[in-house]
C-alpha cells in the first residue's frame, strides 16, 4: 500500500502537488519494474472514488492518458499491463473522466487489442475495465 490508499481529496492533491506530475511521469518511465509498479499503484490509488477521479482527471487527464497509452504500447511484463488496465477501470468509474477514455480512439484501440489478442492478461481485471465502461455488475448481470 501507499499513502494515497483511501486518502481524502486534500491528501491526494498534496501528493500530486508535492511529487509533481512531471516527476510522477518520470517514474512511469523508469526501467526498474519495481519503481514502475509502485508508481502505477500510487496512480491507481490516487484515482479512486468517483469525485476524486473526476477532479484529478479534470486537471491531469491529458497527461495521465498519455502515460497509460505509453505503458500499454511499451514492452512491459503482464503485471505492468494489468496494473495499467486497473487504472483504466478506475478512470472509467469516474462520471466525467470516463469520457476521456470513450473519446480517445488510441485507448479504445488498445482495449480492443486486449479483447481480441488473447494476450495473457488477467481476465478478471480486464473484465472490471469492461464492466466500468458499461456499468455492469458481474454479481448481478
From TrEMBL:
GO terms for cellular component: cytoplasm; GID complex; nucleus. GO terms for biological process: proteasome-mediated ubiquitin-dependent protein catabolic process. It is found in: Cytoplasm; Nucleus. InterPro entries: ARM-like, ARM-type_fold, ARMC8/Vid28. The keyword Manganese does not apply. The keyword DNA-binding does not apply. Keywords: Cytoplasm, Nucleus, Repeat. Signal peptide: none annotated. Its main location: cytoplasm. PANTHER family: ARMADILLO REPEAT-CONTAINING PROTEIN 8. This is Armadillo repeat-containing domain-containing protein. It comes from Aquarana catesbeiana (American bullfrog). The lineage of its organism: Eukaryota, Metazoa, Chordata, Craniata, Vertebrata.
Amino acid at each position: 500500500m501507499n499513502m494515497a490508499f483511501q486518502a481524502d481529496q486534500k491528501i491526494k492533491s498534496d501528493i500530486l502537488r508535492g511529487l509533481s506530475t512531471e516527476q510522477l511521469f518520470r517514474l512511469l518511465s523508469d526501467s526498474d519494474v519495481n519503481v514502475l509498479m509502485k508508481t502505477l499503484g500510487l496512480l491507481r490509488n490516487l484515482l479512486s472514488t468517483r469525485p476524486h477521479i473526476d477532479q484529478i482527471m479534470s486537471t491531469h487527464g491529458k497527461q495521465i492518458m498519455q502515460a497509460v497509452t505509453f505503458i500499454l504500447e511499451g514492452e512491459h511484463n503482464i503485471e505492468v499491463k494489468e496494473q495499467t488496465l486497473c487504472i483504466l477501470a478506475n478512470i472509467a468509474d469516474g462520471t466525467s473522466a470516463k469520457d476521456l477514455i470513450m473519446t480517445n480512439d488510441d485507448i479504445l484501440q488498445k482495449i480492443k487489442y486486449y479483447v481480441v489478442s488473447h494476450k495473457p492478461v488477467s481476465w478478471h481485471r480486464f473484465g472490471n475495465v469492461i464492466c466500468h465502461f458499461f456499468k455492469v455488475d458481474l454479481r448481478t448481470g
